């Protein structure tokens, strides 16, 4: 098996695996939204997230507070952060939360809900397109032949 064929196979498998992962992330987010309750929350603080790289500026994630139907005040921070901050203190935001466990909450925003699926799916599509393009572009290329010794 030559190296070009190995690259095509690896890129194809990685692409398909990432597209399957994106589909699973999409289904997970869809199922969460379908079973979640919605509330209005408020960004009460911005938390700095230090980078593991030297000389890199911090990113920011919001600390959000909302009131559950039980009357309990819930605070949470999403796992994603950005620089510049995507939210500002005092901003009112939509929140999806699990009624059985209000601490299991997500912001109602594209990146918070669908960002993982979009990124993984986009990368998977690039890998798969690269593998398919290699297949078609190199299909007509003559194979190197060994000279008899």
Describe this structure in words.
The chain has 149 residues and is α+β, with helices and mostly antiparallel strands. The protein contains two helices and five strands. β4 and β5 form a beta hairpin. α1 packs antiparallel against α2. It is elongated and about 80 Å long. The model has no long low-confidence stretch (mean pLDDT 89).
The percent range for helix content is 40-55%
What value does the Rg take, in angstroms? 23 Å
Distance between the termini: 21 Å
What is the typical, i.e. mean, pLDDT?
A: 89
**How much of the residues is beta strand, in percent?**
25-35%
Number of structural domains? 1
**Total number of helices:** 2
The major pleated sheet works out as: 5 strands, antiparallel
Give the strand order of the largest sheet, numbering strands 1, 2, ... along the chain. Answer: 3-2-1-4-5
Low-confidence stretches: none
Order of helices and strands: HEEEEEH
Short description:
The chain has 149 residues and is α+β, with helices and mostly antiparallel strands. The chain is built from two helices and five strands, in the order αβββββα. Strands 3-2-1-4-5 form a five-stranded antiparallel beta sheet, with helices on one face.
Keywords:
149 residues; alpha+beta; 5-stranded antiparallel β-sheet; 2 helices; elongated
List the helices and strands and how they pair.
Elements (H helix, E strand, L loop, with lengths): L2 H33 L1 E13 L9 E9 L5 E4 L15 E7 L2 E7 L2 H29 L11
Antiparallel strand pairs: 1-2, 1-4, 2-3, 4-5
Helix pairs in contact: 1-2
């Amino acid at each position: 098996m030559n190296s070009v064929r190995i690259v095509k196979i690896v890129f194809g498998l990685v692409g398909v695996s990432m597209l399957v992962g994106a589909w699973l992330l999409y289904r997970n987010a869809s199922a969460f939204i379908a079973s979640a309750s919605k509330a209005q929350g408020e960004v009460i603080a911005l938390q700095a997230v230090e980078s593991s790289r030297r000389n890199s500026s911090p990113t920011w994630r919001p600390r959000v507070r909302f009131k559950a139907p039980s009357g309990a005040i819930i605070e949470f921070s999403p796992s994603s952060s950005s620089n510049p901050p995507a939210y500002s203190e005092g901003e009112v935001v939509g929140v999806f939360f699990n009624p059985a466990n209000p601490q299991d909450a997500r912001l109602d925003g594209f990146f918070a809900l669908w960002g993982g699926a979009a990124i993984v799916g986009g990368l998977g599509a690039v890998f798969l397109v690269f593998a398919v393009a290699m297949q078609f572009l190199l299909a007509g290329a003559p194979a190197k032949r060994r000279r008899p010794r």
